[in-house]
Amino acid sequence: MHSTLSSEAVASTLSRLQAAEEKQDLVAAFKAAGVDMAGEYPVDLPADELAERTKDLIMSVSKEGGRLLYLLARSARARTVVEFGTSFGISTLYLASAVRDNGGGTVITTELQADKALAAEKNFAEAGLDDLIELRLGDARETLRELPGPVDLLLLDGWLDLRLPILELVAPRLRPGALVVVDDVDLEIGRGVYQEFLDHVTDPANGYFSVRLPVHMGVQVCLKLG
User: Fold this and answer.
1) Rounded CA gap, 103 and 29, in Å?
2) Domain map of the chain by residue range?
């Protein structure tokens, strides 16, 4: 049995997007948007303005990180997946491929910037996975308030300072054994913010077992206990 990731439609869509991402100079692009990657975080900009300034940037998981997402979602037999931070939909395609191979379900993903959301939807259709994906446009703190349950996997890959609030919002819908996957945990710009998140998921009182994996810029995987 072949993975959906190896299908022509999915593989070619991912290849095109990842090739475009590799050509970017993120440090220069963020600087042009008014964000110093070596500076303090959170930056002094509202989330919607920051999203608007970076609307042309592809910000996603690495190839290795995407394959890890697929592996984790398959291992968890995930049917209901929630993603914070769509961008152009690269990570969503890895998750939806896993859901397809798990027998079907839904990936609920949310994006703040309208142009990116439109481009992502075109990518989902090109890959032939749009029937599995529900993209919600707007602030994730609002768009993810209503969710079907139980949730099998949550990916946190949006703005760093919103990851803990989104986790706390979705947590009541996570089933025992659900996975929470957090990308780019080793970014210097977000170290202070991430420490607050790490303190939360490593406190036994909050009900998670957590481990950091040395994938790309660091991936934290948290198991919902119970």
Assistant:
1) 40
2) 4-17+56-224
pLDDT tens figures, 90-135: 999 999 999 999 999 999 999 999 999 999 999 999 999 999 999 9
Q: CA torsion sign, 11 to 16 to 22 to 26?
A: negative
3-state SS class at 99? helix
DSSP state, residue 225: P
Give the pairing of strands 208-213 and 219-224: antiparallel
Q: 4-17+56-224: what fold?
A: Rossmann fold (3.40.50)
Q: How far apart are the first and last CA of the chain?
A: 33
Helices (H), 102-155: 114-127, 140-143
The C-alpha atoms of residue 167 and residue 154 are separated, in whole angstroms, by 8
Say how many CA atoms lie within 13 Å of 64 toward its Cβ: 8
